[in-house]
Amino acid sequence: MARLLATAAAVLILLIALILFYLVERKLLRARYRQEVAQAVEWFALPDSPLSDYLGSGERTRRLQASGDGLRREALEEALLKRLTVSASQTERERIYAFAADYFGEEYEGLLNKRRWSDRMNVLLHIEKFKMSGAKDSLLRRLERLPESPKHDDERFLLIRTLASLHAEEALDYLEVASRRFSELQLLQMLRPLDGEMLERLLRDFDRLPIRIRRCLLDTLRIGNVRTTEVLALFERCIRSEDRETRIRAFKALANFGYMTEEAADWLESSMARSAEFEWPERLMHARLAGAVREERFAPHLERLMADPSYEVRREAASALAQYRGGMDRIAGIAKEHPDRFARDMAVETLERRAYERNVG
What we know:
By secondary structure, this protein is mainly α. Helix content is 74%, strand content 0%. The chain has helices at 2-45, 50-57, 62-65, 70-86, 90-111, 117-129, 136-145, 153-165, 175-181, 184-191, 196-204, 211-223, 229-238, 244-257, 262-273, 280-293, 299-305, 311-321, 327-337, 341-360. It has a domain at 259-361: Leucine-rich Repeat Variant, CATH 1.25.10.10.
């Protein structure tokens, strides 16, 4: 029995040793392979490499077109992606897109159907970065075949975002699905690439969009600093929305816009006059917008908001009032004479902060 146990232990030790040897060898081989890829990427970056010649002239040589082995293809792929991150020339970027579509297009479309999740996700990122519009049909087919299970939502999101980045109108057909399944950050990433006719379509159909898409579209327009009369009209209409979150985002977007019509200013003044009807996040946005447009009629309301129960609102009101002509003098007066202790404290805090900023600056 003891001999049997000893034999079993020896076999187990041998198996563990073989597994460790295999893992170490595999790690060493992978490290050597990555070193060779890195060297090839550096070679492609040289001024006299076939890739540099192509990007400069637009002419593809046989050396560049050669299919090569896996190492060369991986190195060329990495070199193109690296060049995209530093290229400021639109001509050069277009040449990269064209070459990548011809060289990798068929391979990428095949990888979309691989069983391994990581293979599919990586190739989606590459299709997006190389703007491979020719892959649109393959993306749509993959999207249609994707199971409804939530565990596939990461891939679903990346498929739809890639379609949006390629300016494929079909991406808009999935807005309802996106609004139910994706986070707000994902929705923003999906909406950000949309422009031109696709953006105009969203603006026309705004009231028919899912509520989460409407909110994120307001954020997208603000972040993208889109400044058109249509967008301004949308912002001003949305500050009257029945949905509080939509109103808040519209006020925030208008503050970024820095301008509003007389009618919208009247609405803001009316809202500030009855600020007690609103919760603190909306009162804060009233103050922020008043600070952005700096119309004198809002100054008394900002002074009143400096006594607001919410610290965040008091701070925003003080910051907004400081933007007005003579605003710091008004704040100094509040620090001395205002009957509300919170307002006086906020005024003192604002004066001290501005004095510190002047000294540091």
